[in-house]
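Dear support,

I submitted the protein below through the web form. The confirmation email said the job was done, but the results page showed an empty box. After a refresh the structure appeared. I'm attaching both so you can tell me whether what I see now is the final result or a partial one.
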Amino acid sequence: MSRTCPHAEAADRHDPDSGLYWYVIAEDERDVGTVWIELLPAGSEAVLGVYLGDPSDCGRGIGTAAIDLAITELRRAHPHLPIVLRVRRSNTRAIACYRRVGFTVIGSGCKSLPSGEAVPYYRMVLPTLRQKPRRCLASPPVERIDPTRLGSAVESSRGARRSCAVRCAQSEEVRVIVRPETNRDFDGIREVNIVAFQGHPYSQQTEHLIVEALRVADALELSLVAESDGEVVGHIAFSAAAIGGSSTGWFLLGPVAVRPARQGEGIGRALVETGLDALRSRRACGCVLVGDPAFYGRFGFRQYPGVAWHGAPDESVLCLLMSGEVPTGEVVPHPAFLAGT
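What the results page shows now:
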């Protein structure tokens, strides 16, 4: 059988009448795991569970295909029933699988195991066709501080940054706050930059080193985190840059990182917008970056002739003009930005 289209066979405990849909996942006549969906007694939702016995079977599409099959079977009998699940926050591969199927993060918590270990988890939901998914980040933000306060905090002292926060939440949504970093965020910032760029084809996986080198050199002009339930789920950094010898008022955006499980929720957009508002409040001349024109174009970034980054395609070198004119020449970042290269 195809490894991307596993066969799910009915097991003894497959009993839709009692609210349990249970399948054995088989590939090439070998049982590799199980997938089940259980209807809760109240009938308000169903709970999904998946188990693959051999770690080598993970990441091959087996789980995704089996989940699709189980959901299809359930939808025939209960087309309007939302399906929920819990997944460890550290299990980024499973989270990515669930997101491909259509699940969305709607909350988080912590489960205590018999051993006493506390396991943080995300709660995810697959909405019905007539139900819109609950957003994890309000768009637009419900409450947003005056960006001039953020700018003045950056200029006055890095320790004062924690007093300036952008709250993006509604009472029924997962609360996400975009705020300046504090020293308690350093480990979380390091982790989010590692996991966000892990395996990225255009990354050397040195983003966390860049942030730390800029911080040590006192060259982090602005460092913001997105926090949800006490966890750093996103981060963005800005540092000074020169273009063609002009080193006044231009800033370099990057890196920007969002945990894989929280991508697609607008967290990256909130980080970028908050950072750019802070730069405008400081009367910056502009911001430059190397990135995806499709994503950054929505913020006003575009390619300018004569602006280049050594080794980068011209179409990915983007500028956002805030005042004056865009200088020409090669972009020269702070020396600490080259950490790990």
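Response: this is the final, complete result; the empty box was a page-load delay. Residues 7-126 form a domain with the Aminopeptidase fold (CATH 3.40.630.30).
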